[in-house]
């Protein structure tokens, strides 16, 4: 453990002692339950040095533990804090560990301002039956983190209707219809991407996520956006007014909520414990997955057109990037850390480019097996002309968000590598070509992406697909395609990723990812059936494919996909690039 | 609607009026929440004439409605009571319908003695928010059903350890370990099959289900079996004593439970509302899926051996049955109703045969499309030498329970029939050959059985697999393989059915069902992987197969399965039978 971390932990322990707390739990999120919080809320990273997007630190008077999932096992092991591997049967839950570490009647602290209400309810219950008490009143980091960044106050902007397809006041009216059907009169929203979608605004308060820090209260009578006045311009103020939105100060949300008289719809997993507890106890609370989140996930025609346009531009940038890579690697000197830079260089030449949609994962060889590897100057290795390079990257454009993974052979491969690559490809194709009845959940389809691997005693421990925002967060709900159950059904207009992978620790990692749109396929006497349309436009490396492992149908899909990529991208390329792409998309 | 039903409904309405009730809900179950209740509890059938295994009747002062699932849509439509199709999006839930039919503040009755506590809690809540009240105090059928059968008082018997593999006191000790891990000191059981399994006793109170009506209370200090004294013999009394079981009168369970001082483990979906409410309010209740049910589902070696032995005898009977069928149909005069009789005839010639495990479904032509078709003298049609006959049947043997469906071509088929049959077979094989990591739920595998159909816009609306008891109920939990989520993972030793089907209403039905055992397959760097072993021994009709639709791997599985059937059954057959089976199991 580094000296800095040691000092920070001690400062926290001193704070805990002053407040009579025997443990403190620091989640990775913020007052908006974001996956990626602004730096003001990066207290979990500050206290532990662990930069992964998911993970919880628990500090007791003597010990410190970090719970995180398989994506981050390798990274987390190097923090010096005890690693608890989430998802493995032998790993104790945080409450179980606390019960074994603390004495009867001792106190566990959380900051109720950065803890989901639902999780806090559950934690309270779990600790209580173990004889422990939960205290949620303190934010120790306001005290111990001296140079803590302030809550972002960057201006936001209005996304034009040509991209959003629906004005804010219409979305608000649809939300009101929806919550009324659920027996509520108002909707309380803390999720920044949901707010951005509802109001058709975008910001840059959080790296890679074009959101603006705010809260929203929506009802037929009044819709309020709680936002720092510094963020407002004359233009945005008059825009909000025209959309019939009342503007209030960000910090006034507590005051306002404490006085509401409506029955409130909210999602207790997306509202903090503190905000939830601010609602007057006499108000009826309808605690359901946010109807606005489901609405957001179902993309309208303008959004889908935007995705298609963004994919073309992203595809052109990717062609240029992979052409460069192919030439540069054999010449020597290409390192992992150059990959994100080159990708931004090519993407930034495209219209409508805003920035990355997440930190590029560029893992060469063994680093490819670290599922959410974040290359640093220290870790960056040279990409030699052998084995696999895995590149998972994405961009924000005004008209869409991209997220794509390609694994490319940068030189000779072993037979095992080729077999593994082909298994991943088979899984990818199997999901891409799925046909499924209306009402199907992602967890029912997940096995399609894994079966080729399961048949060989192989599995990957991450999800197969996540929802993706329209010029918004690269990860969004409510749908997913994964082993875990998720009651959300796949609905027409949803955009989800298709990203099976295979990771041999210490050797290499393989992942092939496209974005897929749920569309209507057919209506028969047995009902409505849906299918996926692949949106991503980029060749999939053919050199590692063991063709004998593919079925006739898989080969047809593959060749058709490559033809589709060529037909869409070639008009946008130079002759040289076109020639390169022709070769890369030739029939196998 | 028949006159009898009309009179019965009026008698109930009179009772309702006297008690101030505006509606009464009559579920299909009993005081033990059985799927198949003894005739004493068949009040739903008595009031409606509807004989399906699942369905709920709701009677208001003016109307009567029957809610049932797709298996029974055709049958239910003929009752004269309004049919509400469960599972279709446009069908109102019972509480919604009641809210639309009744006025604010009106009263809905249920008999708390035949209503699962969990459902009653949920119903109370749903009715309350609609301004209706639930009254659970009355059993109207004690008054209005004059010739109501009494609660069965048949003797039970002890199943020897050579079949059960574990004495009752050891099971009880394991249950106590298990409930203690869940923070409880006692287990309250009303499920008749669970009681039969725990105490190694079997009875014949319920048709097809070898159970005996009773309750059980299990704790380290005392284990009590609540049972009618008329059911006891000297032998069973001394057996229970030797297993350290206290015997109490069946009806004393309420008295006893009202005085318990332990923290109680129970499954509120398997305990009636009345019994649940008998538990003193100061007792802690651990409401979880019954640990005993999970233990019961994981078969031990003796039970698995028993299944294997029972399958051989069942297989021999089935060979003789299908030989007879093949000869008899072209001769004419074979009707659907003869099928169950013939099956019992052949099965009863086998050792250890006890009876049918459920009412045989023998559906010819359009009747095959009625998923849970129960042939009656009125419905029975002649089986002509053309098209499909679907036969779903099973037997109880002292050493195991069987459940098998075969669809056979009794004459020429259309191309569509052959294609449909082959799709079902593909689904069956895909599930039978699945390999899956430890921790996989049935809902993740379900698509394997459906994919060949979904790809063609076809689906079936029943589950793909249910658990099956060891000389116990043909349907048991907690595992299942179906579209709906079920958190239970498939564990080594579980026996489940594999029964995809395809139904063309008004034309024909196809289903191919074997029982499959979860077994360990392999351990790799990615963990433990499981697979299925097919237990059922009976040829699958080859004549409808479109071989070109099968993959090489599917053909290999099919031929290997047929070789396995022949190798296991042929030593038990006559030369003539052997010759017939050889031909039926020849390689395709």
For the largest interface, the chains and their residue counts are: A-B, 34 and 34 residues
Low-pLDDT stretches of chain A: none
Total strands of chain A: the figure is 28
Q: Helical element count of chain A?
A: 19
State the helical fraction of chain A: 25-40%
Instruction: Compute the separation of the termini of chain A in Å.
Output: 51 Å
- Looking at how many chains there are and whether they match, the oligomeric state comes to homodimer
Structural class of chain A: alpha+beta
What's the story with the biggest beta sheet of chain A? 6 strands, mixed
Can you describe what's shown?
2 copies of one chain form a homodimer. The first copy, chain A, has 588 residues and is of the alpha+beta class. Chain A is 35% helix and 20% strand. Chain A is built from 19 helices and 28 strands. Chain A has a 6-stranded mixed β-sheet, sandwiched between helices. In chain A, α14 (301-331) crosses α15 (338-347) and α16 (415-432) packs antiparallel against α17. In chain A, 51% of the residues are buried. Chains A and B meet through β21, α17 and β27 of A and β21, α17 and β27 of B.
In short:
2 copies of one chain form a homodimer. Chain A is built from 19 helices and 28 strands.
């Amino acid at each position: 453990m580094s000296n800095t971390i040691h000092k920070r932990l001690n400062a926290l322990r001193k704070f805990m002692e002053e407040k009579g707390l025997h443990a403190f739990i620091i989640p990775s999120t913020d007052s908006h339950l974001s996956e990626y919080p602004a730096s003001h809320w990066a207290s979990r990273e500050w206290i532990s040095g662990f930069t992964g997007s998911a993970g919880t630190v628990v500090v007791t008077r003597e010990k410190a533990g970090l719970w995180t999932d398989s994506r981050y096992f390798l990274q987390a092991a190097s923090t010096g804090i005890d690693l608890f591997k989430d998802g493995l049967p032998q790993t104790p839950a945080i409450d179980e560990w606390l019960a074994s570490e603390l004495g009867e009647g001792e106190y566990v602290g959380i900051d109720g301002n950065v803890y989901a209400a639902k999780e806090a309810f559950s934690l309270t219950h779990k600790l209580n039956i173990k004889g422990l008490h939960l205290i949620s009143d303190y934010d120790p980091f306001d005290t111990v983190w001296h140079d803590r960044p302030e809550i972002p106050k960057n201006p936001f902007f209005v996304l034009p209707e040509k991209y959003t397809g629906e004005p804010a006041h219409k979305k608000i009216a649809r939300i009101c219809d929806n919550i009324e059907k659920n027996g509520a009169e108002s909707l309380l929203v803390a999720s920044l991407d949901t707010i951005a979608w509802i109001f058709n605004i975008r910001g840059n308060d959080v790296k890679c996520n074009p959101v603006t820090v705010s809260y929203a209260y929506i009802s037929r009578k009044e819709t309020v956006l709680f936002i720092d006045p510094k963020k407002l311009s004359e233009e945005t103020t008059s825009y909000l007014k025209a959309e019939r939105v009342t503007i209030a100060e960000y910090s006034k949300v507590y005051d306002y909520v404490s006085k509401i008289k409506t029955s409130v719809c909210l999602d207790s997993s997306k509202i903090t414990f503190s905000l939830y507890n601010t609602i007057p106890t006499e108000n009826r609370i309808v605690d359901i997955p946010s109807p606005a989140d489901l609405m957001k996930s179902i993309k309208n025609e303008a959004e889908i057109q935007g995705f298609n346009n963004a994919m073309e531009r992203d595809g052109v940038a990717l062609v240029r990037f992979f052409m460069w890579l192919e030439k540069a690697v054999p010449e020597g000197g290409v390192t992992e850390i150059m990959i994100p830079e080159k990708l931004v260089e090519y993407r930034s030449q495209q219209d409508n480019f805003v920035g990355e949609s997440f930190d590029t994962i560029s893992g060469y060889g063994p680093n490819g097996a670290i599922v959410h590897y974040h290359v640093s100057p220290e870790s960056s290795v040279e990409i030699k002309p052998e084995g696999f390079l895995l590149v998972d990257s994405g961009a924000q454009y005004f008209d869409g968000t991209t997220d794509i993974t390609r694994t490319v052979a940068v030189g000779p491969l072993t037979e095992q590598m080729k077999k593994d690559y082909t298994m991943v490809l088979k899984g990818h194709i199997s999901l891409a070509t799925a046909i499924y009845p209306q009402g199907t959940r992602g967890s029912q389809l997940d096995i399609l992406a894994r079966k080729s691997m399961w048949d060989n005693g192989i599995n990957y421990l991450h999800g197969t697909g996540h929802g993706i925002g329209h010029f918004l967060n690269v990860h969004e709900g409510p749908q997913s395609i994964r082993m875990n159950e998720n009651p959300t059904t796949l609905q027409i207009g949803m955009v989800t990723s298709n990203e099976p992978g295979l990771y041999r620790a210490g050797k290499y990692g393989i992942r092939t990812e496209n974005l897929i749109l749920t569309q209507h396929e057919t209506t028969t006497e047995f009902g409505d059936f849906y299918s996926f349309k692949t949106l991503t436009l980029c060749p999939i490396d053919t050199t590692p494919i063991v063709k004998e492992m593919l079925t006739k149908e898989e080969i047809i899909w593959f060749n058709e996909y490559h033809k589709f990529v060529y037909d869409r991208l070639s008009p946008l390329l130079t002759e040289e690039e076109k020639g390169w792409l022709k070769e890369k998309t030739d029939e196998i």
